[in-house]
Each structure stands twice: as structure tokens, then as C-alpha cells.
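Our example pasted here:


***
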Amino acid sequence: MLTAETNVEFKPVFIKDKAGDMVLIRQYDHSKDRDKLVGMYVTFSPENRCLGLPPTTRQAIETWVDYLGTNGFAIVAECDGKIVGHLAILPTEDGKKVDLSVFVHQDYQNRGIGQHMIGLIIDYCRKKGYEGIMLVTGRTNTRAIHVYKKMGFKVVDPSYEYDMYLPLK
């Protein structure tokens, strides 16, 4: 679990996405949400995977979701009781920064959900006192790169993958 420098909680937020649907963005509860989240990833399109994530088999998805659920902090986007987006942050070894992963189910992409989730987690991480947020994405993931840059992330290593960073202090 992340260790908090300050006592900051994530407050649930309702947004209206670009399709006009009401979406709840809230903290992930591993004990209650695990099966719904695994279900989202089981139906995740192979074309939307990036750098091998999310995993493809149910067993690998469950192992990955369990790892994120016990070692990090996560939020989910929920529409009509169904999890349609997932964002997780994991602390770096020194605890000063976090690594970010975000996935929105293909049926809900291009609606602004991921961008809202990223904005909310940036605010959360600032309040927690983290120095910055890191992420890695594929060079060909142009939609995601566009959103990350729009949110203030900069490319720090444009090798095979794009390592991106957002300083918070």
C-alpha cells in the first residue's frame, strides 16, 4: 500500500462523459471491486493493449489486478454499475514518485473518461506530497501520448517506449 505523507482521501466525482453518460470516478476497493475489474480486463480488446498490459489470460489478469490492489492505490470509472476504466499508481522505491497506469475499456474510449481520471489522480498525488508521476507508453499510442502531453507530461526518454514524467513540485 502507498504510505501517505498526509491524510488525503480520494473523493468520488460524477462526470458527464462526451457521450452524455454519467460516470462515477471513485476509489477502487479491492475486496468489493476485484471481480468487476477482472471482468473489464477479460473483455479488453487486444488492439488496446500497450506494452503487454493488461495481460491476456484470466489468470494473468487476476494476478496483475491483485498485485495492483495490494501494492498501490487505484481509482475506477463506473458507468451503470459496470467498471469501464481503471487507473493505478504504484510508489517508486524511494516513495517520492509514483508510476501510473491507466486503461479505459474500448467501448468507453474517446469520451474524456481517462483524461478526467488522470486529472483527478494528479490532484490527489499533489495533495499527497509526491514529487512527480512517471509512466511508460508505446511510441505508437498516439491518442494516449496526446492526452498525457495535454495533462502536462513530458517525454523524458523517446526510445522504443515513451517514458513520460510530470513534476508535481
About this structure: The helical segments are 30-42, 58-71, 113-128, 142-150. Strands lie at 13-16, 22-27, 73-79, 82-91, 97-104, 132-138, 154-158, 161-167.
